[in-house]
Amino acid sequence: MDHFNYKNGRLFAEKVDVADIAGRVGTPVYIYSKATFGDHLQKVQAAYADVEHLICYSIKACGNINILKFLAEAGSGFDIVSGGELYRAQLAGADCSKIVYAGAGKTDAEIIEALNAEIGYFNIESEAEFENLIKLAKKTGHKTKAALRVNPDVDAKTHRYTTTGQKETKFGVDIERAHDIFSKYGKNDSVRLCAIHVHLGSAGKTVAPYVEAMQKTLVLIEQLRGDGFSIESLNIGGGYGADYETDTAPAAADYASAIIPFVKGKNLKLILEPGASIAANSAILLTKVLYLKTGGEKEFVIVDAGMNDLIRPPLYDAFHFIWPAKVGKQFVPNKRTKQPQIDGLQIVDVVGPVCEAADFFARERAIPPVARGDLIAIFTAGAYGFTMSSNYNARPMAAEVLVDGDKFTIIRKRQTYEDLVGLERGLDIQQ
Ligand SMILES: *Cc1c(COP(=O)(O)O)cnc(C)c1O
Questions:
Q1: Which terminus has fewer CB within 10 Å in the chain: N or C?
Q2: From ligand 1's centre to the CA of 179, what distance in Å?
Q3: Average pLDDT, stretch 262-289?
């Protein structure tokens, strides 16, 4: 599933010992594997080879421009949710006609930037947004295409913070209202409404919600076509499961074999927006043990990464497999799982230095014994890891390193104290 493996008890990212990276770059550090990104993208591309399709990797999962660059070279389009992400995609050399733009709150400035870039589709989330897009397209003399984001009212059975396809969300419009919206805007020639978009939410672990969403949207598409509207593509969003535990997520081919029959022969281009399923296990967050501490009945391992570096455990109750980067033979994990069946483990809470009780990576977790100074890997940290990091507690953001075979490159420098205050300088308030 990825290229982070133990050899002789030492953790390697592809062919690089992660301890060598820590020695050069320090900790905490995000370590990405180029081959893992490439493998995941290639698997999705291969899975849909039978139908006309476009893969738009979701930048918000992990948006370093050096990563976007090789994904673009490998043929990926991009799913963006802001002007900043458009800027990143452009810097990375993206083909803008392969960009789709979602988000319930696009500003005028962002819309104009995307019109100027001639992106592929605006994914429209409300009537008010549509009216504004038409106005701005006319004003700037651009023509563009739009997909209507509908809520198929399917429960993706994910965490309540990551479910987006049900009725009570801020995203998209209820599927029953799609007809009215097409009647109103479906013949506009500044903004051609010619696609349907759905996105069920993130981190689904089964194929079933996609099948249900396909059934509902295909009925809608047939009806709209019957009413004389031309629908050229269906964007089924992202949210495909990633292997946070070994072999727990459906493979790209499993999703494809359930989804493809719905669109095959329908003259419908399929668009996908995978984020986590491509990025998640393409990285680890490597951190160092600062202190061991006993508190009441609990043993704490305090590390130098914090919730400002990786917020998924407190935010989503997310599970990340955590293991020392150097272990004795008996502790080499054969599987990343919540309950490893290995003797001699200790039960600990792995926590960071941030002044919040929510600053934890794992609670009551079995890991091999560790000591001050040991390196610990937090696995499957590539998606919504660095992109959600912050400077809370005035902590400089971690460095990002990309491994390619036996080489590694710093693709984002560790922030300095000066980076923390640079934008505040020279603005002294006169009293
Ligand atoms: C976040 C998002 C995605 C990506 O979701 P993943 O769970 O990372 O695959 C795709 N499409 C839209 C519209 C999104 O908001």
A1: C
A2: 25
A3: 97
The Cα 376–Cα 284 span in angstroms is: 10
The size of the chain, in residues, is 431
102 CA: nearest ligand 1 atom = 13
Specify the ligand 1 atom closest to the Cα of 240: 9
Looking at residue 357, its amino acid is A
Closest atom, ligand 1, to C-alpha of 237: 11
Ligand 1 within 6 A of 201 CB? no
Q: Which residues contact 286 (CB under 8 A, 6 or more apart)?
A: 18, 21, 22, 27, 28, 29, 30, 31, 325, 375, 376, 377, 378
Q: What residue ranges in 342-419 does DSSP mark as E strands? A: 346-351, 360-367, 375-378, 399-404, 407-412
Ligand 1 binding pocket includes 199 (Cβ within 6 Å)? yes
Query: Which pLDDT belongs to residue 205?
Result: 85
Q: Say if residue 203 is in the same domain as residue 297.
A: no
Pocket of ligand 1 contains residue 274 by CB under 6 Å: yes
Kindly report the protein residue whose alpha carbon is nearest to atom 10 of ligand 1: 238
| 255 belongs to a structural domain | yes
Quote the ligand 1 centre to 341 CA distance (angstroms).
34
* 151 domain-assigned: yes
Judge if 109 and 170 occupy the same domain: yes
Please work out whether the CB of residue 241 comes within 6 Å of at least one atom of ligand 1. Answer: no
> What is the number of domains present in the chain?
2
Element (H, E) at 17: strand 16-17
* Residue nearest atom 3 in ligand 1 by C-alpha distance: 238
Mean predicted confidence (pLDDT) in 272-284: 97
- Local structure of residue 251 (DSSP, 8 states): P
Q: Is the CB of 238 inside a 6 Å radius of any atom of ligand 1? A: yes
Inside any domain, residue 153: yes
User: Does the N-terminal peptide bond of residue 28 adopt cis geometry, omega within 30 degrees of 0?
Assistant: yes
pTM of the model as a whole? 0.96
Domain containing 221: what range?
34-278
Q: Is the CB of 237 under 6 A from ligand 1?
A: yes
For residues 170 and 269, membership in a common domain is answered with yes
Residues 295 and 262 in one domain: no
- Residue 159: the pLDDT is 57
User: Residue 261 pLDDT more than 60?
Assistant: yes
Residue 186 domain-assigned (yes or no): yes
| Residues belonging to the active site | 355
| Confidence (pLDDT) at 431 | 65
| Closest ligand 1 atom, residue 275 Cα | 8
Query: At 429, is the pLDDT very low, low, confident or very high (cuts 50, 70, 90)?
Result: confident
